[in-house]
């Protein structure tokens, strides 16, 4: 009886070991260049584009790219930074606020490993950070809305201040709307983003629609990224108020938003970050650094484009 | 003939050892495996100090979670409490309050929140699952409310405070670099010691185990059920707040969700530890092994560059495997 | 069923079973006759359970033969036993608490159906009612949720289910019933009903094998008795030809006089515990006084309030009004914790669910109510003192265990009860509140517990002893408080009291 139990246990241990080595079989030998990408946000479409572009460029250079996603957990990102520093990779790319992972960045610095920001945030511990200009993007959509309304109207804003890159978009939009005395902000909503942001935004927008029942009482929805804009659009359609001409704008131009812009139901504009360009530019920066070049810029901006019905077709065909 | 042969002594001994230490053996098997795969970077002093630092925060939550789980209760609100405690301290730091004030307020919030859980469970009589699930949402809402959803970082967090997570006690030098026993590791060890003394060496702990074994018998045997449950939940609450402070120090920032992920891992660690006791009771040293397994798996799998999602699958599978195995071994004997 | 009384119906011959080095059964034979209740007695470990398991086909004997109606039959497994008409009813009932009585009675059988698909509920209830009526327990409704019935009625319903004719298969009717300690969890009243059912069974020509530790029951309902010891049958006799004394001697080598050790010390006149007009939700205005050194029995039917009286004194149920004085001082704020601290000790009715933390060690259980007393500064446990105390308690109670650190779950029922008893003695109490302290344990363990009770009384303890074992109450107590419907119905001296009188008191009659 006992012997059988023991054998059972041992075989299970071996199965685990086998599982582990199966995973490990995917790794390439250690002597060529290895770059680790650490992000809590891989579930975001934008991050996926950047990481894919970086992987493509990196593999073209003959690197091994190890992508680590901590599924929203910033503390785990710090731990994983320490792990890859201990492992001794050649370079690290982060897609997370550097201020929040500075302990991990110090571990990398102590191990002499260069760290690059990919839409991360400026930090002295980074060789450089490649990003879009968040202020400029928010300014594009906020001025678009102001122009469409001719400076008069009632606006619902969707923002998310806990995440610094989105927070700065809100600040710019606040400033631009405040500059038009006849624009009134009805509500500034922070949606629950654990479901991706669409469902809760829709629910919040439905409540706002219910509170403002007269046609024309809501002129526009300005969202700091696309998901709340999509949720708002769904709410407006569900309430049968798509005929009121409520202007909806988002930022990031994700595929769902592009479809909505093309459909022309009220979702009028978004801003496309060039994620592929960011990923590629980071790879370029890593390559230059490894080749011994000194990169002077703390931040490298990659241009963005306002997407409207006029030019949406080019983005969808991509 | 249908005689059952009597079990020879050594075989029975092996069964006993497996039952008690199977999980520990599994842990060493995992360590050996990573060592063999990454001989240069895994089994180093620096990496192990790293691991202890990485698991220190989870450890504090799991150790104090053990206290309520000994009574057969749960506290699902620990993650939200860690977020709340952390953000409350950070907000006070932002107002340029002294560091000690921030720490004291966070700990008080931990005690108060834990007592609130205790009141709901012990005096009102709501099941712990429902009561603490409700409080999870409340704590999380309060954290968002007081912070207005913002992340507090940068100069708002005093250097004095964030430096704590970077510092440690020098152990010597390896190569050119000084090796530190990280402060966070020391905090976790102190909490471990405190919980161990509390559960294993005091009459309080003895009574908690009695409650966990049989609530009615404990009450009739003179155990003050309500009072003890109240205190135990307060201990777990304060542990969560300590973990929240450690998070703020380590991340040099605070946001209203940063501790949320701790709860499930802490419960998983306690369950892993429970596989190591004959009667399936939680013990804090077992919880330590559970926390180590989770930490070493994450560190080792990252070093092996295994896809993050595959890592999650493997971690979950190993937890289930360990618990299943201990259940099977127990059933067989 | 054409077999007349006294013809052998079912026989087990020469059963032998070895477990490792121990002989659990050695050439044990048993003959059950139609229309007869056959009692099987013996201490725990005497081989009764093994013999029953062999009959049931659950345990395979090394050597055994069976005969049914004089013809050799084969039992290779539980299905064979069932087919032959053997039915087994154990102490632990396998019922599904949330289902109805009728559904529990049809467990493992096809429900009657309509159109071959839908359960024919009317028919299901009708059939169940019929069986319940036959057994004289028609007051149990087949529609009732079984968990709501008393423990006794649950057992009766389960017995009735063994009596269910198999749907569409009359070829295998139940012929032999084996009842393993069925009254262990029953009150006197419930046991009475069970005896009625047993009578109905034998009247129909069935044979009943009845396992019990309780002498009074056996002399009431059995016609024949077999005593086992160390795996062997030591005696088989007609009940009419034997006495309890002989049976106890056969089981243990002890006689009945020594089972209830006689009082050797005088009762002090000093009142120890006086209760006036005690009221809880379950008991009404109970008054009595217990003297130092006195053993007072508490008798009564189920739900008479006898258990609740002890619970109220201990503080397990809340006191609504009344006055309780201990050693002449009125005590308020009664809670279990305070009661233990004041020198009361409690052995609750259900040792497994109320008395013990099964997952903890003997010493943890033994010192639980007095942890502070054995601690360092009321904060840290003192293992050495706990160990010393536990060892001396184990010695005093003749507890058989490997080690004080052994987990209580691993002990036998009798030894578990001794742990509960040891716990009650640990704080050197003044008042012992004992609720069914000898239920379901064997004669030797009972004897040990009786001696302890005597000894504590000689030490000046007052004892309140709740029991449904009437000989035990009469044999051990000085006075007996009879509870009825939550009130103290009578207080009588136990000297010269007969069982019949005591039973009559329990049913609410007065005796002169």
Topology (elements, then pairings):
The complex is a heterotrimer of chains A (318), B (333) and C (512).
Chain A: H1 2-24, E1 34-39, H2 45-60, E2 64-69, H3 74-87, E3 91-94, H4 102-110, E4 115-118, E5 129-131, H5 134-148, E6 153-158, H6 164-178, E7 183-189, H7 198-211, E8 220-223, H8 226-238, E9 247-249, H9 255-263, E10 267-272, H10 275-290, E11 299-301, E12 305-307, H11 312-317
Helix pairs in contact in A: 2-10, 3-4, 5-6, 7-8
Chain B: H1 9-37, H2 45-70, H3 78-94, H4 99-124, H5 128-147, E1 152-153, H6 159-166, E2 168-174, E3 177-182, H7 183-201, H8 203-213, H9 215-220, H10 225-251, E4 253-254, H11 262-274, H12 284-303, H13 308-332
Antiparallel strand pairs in B: 1-4, 2-3
Helix pairs in contact in B: 1-12, 1-13, 2-7, 2-8, 2-10, 2-11, 2-12, 3-4, 3-5, 3-10, 4-5, 4-10, 6-10, 7-8, 8-10, 11-12
Chain C: E1 8-19, E2 22-33, E3 37-41, H1 48-56, E4 63-68, E5 71-73, H2 78-83, E6 86-89, H3 101-105, E7 113-114, E8 118-119, H4 121-134, H5 151-162, E9 176-180, H6 188-203, E10 207-211, H7 215-221, E11 224-229, E12 232-238, H8 244-252, H9 256-259, E13 271-279, E14 286-291, E15 295-299, H10 306-314, E16 321-326, E17 329-330, H11 336-341, E18 344-347, H12 351-355, H13 362-367, E19 375-376, E20 380-381, H14 383-397, H15 413-426, E21 431-435, H16 443-458, E22 462-466, H17 470-476, E23 479-484, E24 487-493, H18 499-506
Parallel strand pairs in C: 3-10, 3-11, 6-9, 9-10, 15-22, 15-23, 18-21, 21-22
Antiparallel strand pairs in C: 1-2, 1-4, 4-5, 7-8, 11-12, 13-14, 13-16, 16-17, 19-20, 23-24
Would you mind describing this structure in some detail?
- The complex is a heterotrimer of chains A (318), B (333) and C (512).
- Chain A folds into 2 domains: 3-132 and 274-303, Rossmann fold; 134-272, Response regulator (Rossmann fold), CATH 3.40.50.
- In chain A, 47% of the residues lie in helices and 17% in strands.
- Chain A has helices at residues 2-24, 45-60, 74-87, 102-110, 134-148, 164-178, 198-211, 226-238, 255-263, 275-290, 312-317, and strands at 34-39, 64-69, 91-94, 115-118, 129-131, 153-158, 183-189, 220-223, 247-249, 267-272, 299-301, 305-307.
- In chain A, the strands form 2 sheets. A 6-stranded parallel β-sheet of chain A has the order 2-1-3-4-5-11, sandwiched between helices.
- In chain A, helix 8 (226-238) links the parallel strand 8 and strand 9 (247-249).
- In chain A, helix 3 packs parallel to helix 4 (102-110), helix 5 packs parallel to helix 6 (164-178) and helix 7 (198-211) packs across helix 8.
- Chain A is elongated.
- Chain B has a single domain (30-332), classed as Orthogonal Bundle (ABC transporter involved in vitamin B12 uptake, BtuC), CATH 1.10.3470.
- Chain B has helices at 9-37, 45-70, 78-94, 99-124, 128-147, 159-166, 183-201, 203-213, 215-220, 225-251, 262-274, 284-303, 308-332; strands at 152-153, 168-174, 177-182, 253-254.
- Chain B is globular.
- Helix content of chain C is 33%, strand content 25%.
- Chain C has a 6-stranded mixed β-sheet, sandwiched between helices. In chain C, strands 18-21-22-15-23-24 form a 6-stranded mixed β-sheet, with helices on both faces. Chain C has a 4-stranded antiparallel β-sheet with strand order 2-1-4-5, covered by helices on one side.
- In chain C, a hairpin with a 2-residue loop joins strand 1 (8-19) and strand 2 (22-33).
- The model of chain C has no long low-confidence stretch (mean pLDDT 85).
- Classes of the chains: A alpha/beta (318), B mainly alpha (333), C alpha/beta (512).
- The interface between A and B is large, with 59 and 67 residues.
């Amino acid at each position: 009886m006992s012997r059988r139990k023991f054998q059972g246990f041992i075989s299970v241990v071996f199965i685990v070991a086998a599982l582990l080595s199966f995973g490990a079989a995917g790794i390439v030998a250690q002597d060529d260049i290895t770059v680790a990408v650490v992000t809590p946000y891989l579930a975001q479409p934008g991050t996926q584009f950047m990481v894919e572009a970086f992987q493509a460029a990196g593999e073209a250079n003959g690197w091994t790219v190890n992508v680590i996603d901590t599924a929203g957990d910033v503390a785990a990102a710090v731990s994983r930074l320490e792990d890859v520093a201990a492992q001794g990779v050649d370079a690290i790319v982060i897609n997370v606020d550097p201020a929040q992972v500075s302990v991990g960045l110090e571990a990398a610095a102590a191990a002499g490993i260069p760290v690059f920001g990919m839409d991360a945030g400026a930090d002295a511990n980074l060789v450089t950070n490649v990003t879009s200009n968040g202020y400029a993007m928010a300014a594009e959509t906020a001025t678009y809305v102001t122009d469409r309304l001719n400076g008069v109207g009632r606006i619902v804003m969707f923002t998310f201040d806990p995440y610094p890159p989105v927070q700065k978009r809100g600040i710019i939009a606040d400033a631009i709307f405040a500059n038009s005395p006849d624009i009134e902000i009805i509500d500034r909503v922070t949606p629950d983003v654990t479901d991706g942001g669409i469902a809760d935004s829709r629910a919040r927008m439905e409540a706002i629609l219910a509170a403002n029942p007269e046609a024309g009482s809501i002129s526009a929805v300005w969202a700091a990224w696309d998901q709340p804009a999509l949720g708002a659009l769904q709410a407006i359609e569900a309430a049968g108020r798509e005929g009121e001409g409520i202007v909806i704008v988002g930022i990031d131009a994700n595929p769902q938003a592009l479809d909505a812009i093309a459909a022309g139901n009220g979702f009028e504009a978004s801003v496309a970050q060039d994620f592929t360009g960011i990923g590629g530019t980071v790879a370029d920066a890593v390559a230059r650094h490894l080749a011994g070049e000194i990169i002077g810029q703390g931040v490298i901006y990659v241009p963005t484009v306002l997407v409207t019905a006029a030019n949406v077709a080019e983005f969808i065909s991509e | 003939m249908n005689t059952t042969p009597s079990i020879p002594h050594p075989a029975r001994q092996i069964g006993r050892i497996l039952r008690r230490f199977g999980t520990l053996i599994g842990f060493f098997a995992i360590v050996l495996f990573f060592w063999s795969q990454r001989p240069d970077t895994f089994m180093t002093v620096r990496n192990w100090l790293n691991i202890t630092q990485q698991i220190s925060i989870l450890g504090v939550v799991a150790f104090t979670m053990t206290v309520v789980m000994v009574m057969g209760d749960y506290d699902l609100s620990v993650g939200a409490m860690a977020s709340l405690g952390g953000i409350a301290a950070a907000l006070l730091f932002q107002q340029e309050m002294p560091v000690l004030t921030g720490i004291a307020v966070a700990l008080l919030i931990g005690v108060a929140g834990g007592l609130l859980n205790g009141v709901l469970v012990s005096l009102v009589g709501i099941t712990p699952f429902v009561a603490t699930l409700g409080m999870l949402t409340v704590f999380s809402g309060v954290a968002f409310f007081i912070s207005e959803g913002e992340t507090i970082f940068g100069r708002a967090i005093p250097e004095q405070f964030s430096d704590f997570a970077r510092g440690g006690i020098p152990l010597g030098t390896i190569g050119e670099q000084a090796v530190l026993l990280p402060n966070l590791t020391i905090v976790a060890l102190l909490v471990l010691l405190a919980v161990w003394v509390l559960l294993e060496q005091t009459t309080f702990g003895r009574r908690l185990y009695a409650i966990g074994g049989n609530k009615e018998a404990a009450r009739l045997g003179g155990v003050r059920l309500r009072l003890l449950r109240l205190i135990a939940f307060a201990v777990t609450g304060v542990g969560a707040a300590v973990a929240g402070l450690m998070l703020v120090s380590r991340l040099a920032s605070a946001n209203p969700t940063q501790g949320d992920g701790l709860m499930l891992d802490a419960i998983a660690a306690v369950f892993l530890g429970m596989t190591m006791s004959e009667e399936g009771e939680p013990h804090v040293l077992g919880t330590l092994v559970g926390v180590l397994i989770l930490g070493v798996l994450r560190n080792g799998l990252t070093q092996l560059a295994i896809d993050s999602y595959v890592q999650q699958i493997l971690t979950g599978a190993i937890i289930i495997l360990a618990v299943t195995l201990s259940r099977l071994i127990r059933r067989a004997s | 069923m054409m077999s007349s009384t006294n013809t052998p119906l079912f026989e087990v011959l020469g059963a032998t079973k070895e477990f490792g080095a121990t002989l659990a059964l050695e050439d044990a034979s048993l003959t059950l006759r139609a229309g007869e209740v056959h009692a099987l007695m013996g201490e725990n470990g005497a081989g009764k359970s093994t013999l029953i398991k062999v009959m049931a086909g659950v345990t395979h004997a090394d050597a055994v033969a069976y005969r049914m109606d004089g013809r050799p039959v084969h039992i290779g497994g539980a299905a064979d036993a069932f087919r032959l008409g053997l039915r087994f009813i154990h102490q632990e009932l396998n019922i599904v608490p949330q289902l109805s009585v009728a559904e529990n009675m049809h467990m493992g059988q096809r429900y009657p159906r309509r159109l071959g698909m839908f359960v024919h509920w009317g028919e299901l209830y009708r059939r169940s009612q019929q069986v319940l009526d036959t057994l004289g327990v028609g007051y149990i409704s087949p529609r009732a949720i079984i968990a709501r019935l008393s423990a006794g009625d649950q057992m009766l319903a389960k017995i009735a289910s063994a009596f269910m004719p198999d749907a569409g298969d009359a070829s295998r009717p139940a012929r032999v019933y084996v009842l393993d300690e069925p009254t262990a969890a029953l009150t006197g009243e419930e046991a009475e009903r069970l005896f009625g059912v047993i009578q109905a069974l034998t009247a129909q020509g069935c044979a009943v094998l009845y396992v019990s530790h309780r002498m009074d029951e056996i002399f009431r309902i059995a016609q024949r008795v077999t005593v086992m010891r160390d795996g062997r049958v030591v005696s088989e006799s007609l009940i009419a030809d034997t006495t309890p004394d002989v049976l106890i001697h056969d089981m243990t080598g002890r006689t009945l006089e020594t089972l209830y050790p006689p009082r050797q010390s005088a009762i002090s006149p000093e009142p120890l515990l006086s209760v006036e007009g005690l009221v809880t939700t379950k008991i009404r205005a109970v008054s009595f006084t217990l003297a130092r050194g006195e053993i007072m029995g508490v008798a009564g039917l189920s739900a008479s309030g006898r258990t609740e009286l002890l619970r109220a004194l201990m503080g397990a149920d809340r006191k609504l009004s009344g006055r309780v004085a201990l050693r002449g001082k009125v005590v308020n704020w009664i809670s279990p914790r305070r009661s233990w601290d004041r020198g009361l000790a409690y052995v609750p009715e259900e040792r497994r669910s109320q008395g013990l933390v099964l997952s903890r060690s003997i010493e943890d259980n033994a010192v639980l109510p007095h942890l502070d007393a054995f601690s360092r500064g009321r904060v840290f446990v003192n293992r050495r003192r706990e160990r010393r105390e536990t060892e001396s308690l184990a010695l005093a109670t003749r507890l058989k265990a490997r080690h004080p650190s052994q987990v209580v779950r691993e002990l036998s029922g009798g030894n578990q009860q001794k742990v509960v008893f040891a716990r009650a003695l640990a704080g050197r109490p003044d008042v012992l509140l004992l609720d069914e302290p000898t239920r379901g344990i064997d004669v030797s363990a009972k004897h040990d517990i009786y001696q302890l009770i005597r000894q504590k009384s000689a030490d000046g303890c007052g004892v309140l002893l709740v029991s449904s074992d009437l000989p035990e109450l009469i044999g051990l107590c000085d006075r007996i408080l009879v509870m009825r419907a939550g009130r103290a119905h009578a207080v009588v001296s136990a000297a010269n009291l007969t069982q019949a009188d005591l039973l009559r008191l329990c049913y609410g009659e007065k005796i002169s």
